[in-house]
Amino acid sequence: MATFLYARVSTSEQTLSHQQTQAEKAGFIFDHVIADHGVSGVSVLMKDRPEGRRLFDMLRAGDTLVVRWVDRLGRNYADVTDTIREFMRRGVVIRTIINNMTFDGSTTDPMQMAVRDAMISFMAASAQAQAEATKEAQKAGIANAKEKDDAYRGRKPSYSREQFQTVMDLASKSMNVSEIAQASSLSRQTVYRIKEDPAAAEKALAMWGL
Q1: pLDDT tens, 150-176?
Q2: 34, 58, 153, 174: which could join 207 in a potential S-S bond, CB 3.0 to 4.6 Å?
């Protein structure tokens, strides 16, 4: 009988060293440490992770699997509950570092089984709710960063690089603003802005990758 630590490492705060240290402080000693690095916990099924597949192959009846929390064992409610129940069917005992929970498939008492299964469902649902909250926070952070980036870059130019070049070429030929506007399909105001400060106009194009 062996004791395994399984860790999913996807952020700088979730390092393998950190998770292993937490487990050892909780009193666990491991025969095997298995970790998936850079794997999204909300998009990749447990059985489809490289080390997750290896864990499925290695675990045997009587082994103990230690995880930081049940969210390490799946991408959503269904995946977490399926994984836990599959391991319990194999006779594997699952322990969590947080709250020191134990899930043991060997019990045959109906009441204990009902309580255990209800707890698995509750914890898996909580894990998915947290994952959904994290995704929403990430979306909000990305949107906020984009807004800040757009503000830094200023207003997106209303002209293309080709139009900018057309204005500069025709202006060098002493064509008037109306003629340049017609030739470049730009407004007179835009032509005036480009002519008055071509360096700023070109910088705006560069800032937006145009």
Answers
A1: 566 677 888 988 898 888 888 887 888
A2: 153
Identify the burial level of 126 via C-beta atoms within 10 angstroms of its C-beta, where 0-12 means exposed, 13-18 middle and 19 or more buried. middle
Q: Is residue 171 within a helix (H) or strand (E), and if so which, with residue range?
A: helix 161-171
The letter for the amino acid at 185 is S
Q: Assess whether 187 carries a catalytic annotation.
A: no
Q: Choose the CATH number for 161-207 among 1.10.10, 3.30.2320, 2.60.40, 3.10.129.
A: 1.10.10
* pLDDT reported for residue 83: 92
What is residue 8's predicted lDDT score, i.e. its pLDDT? 86
The single residue of 10, 121, 126, 160 carrying the catalytic annotation is: 10
Please compute, for residue 32, the number of CA atoms within 13 A of its CA located in the half-sphere on the CB side.
Answer: 16
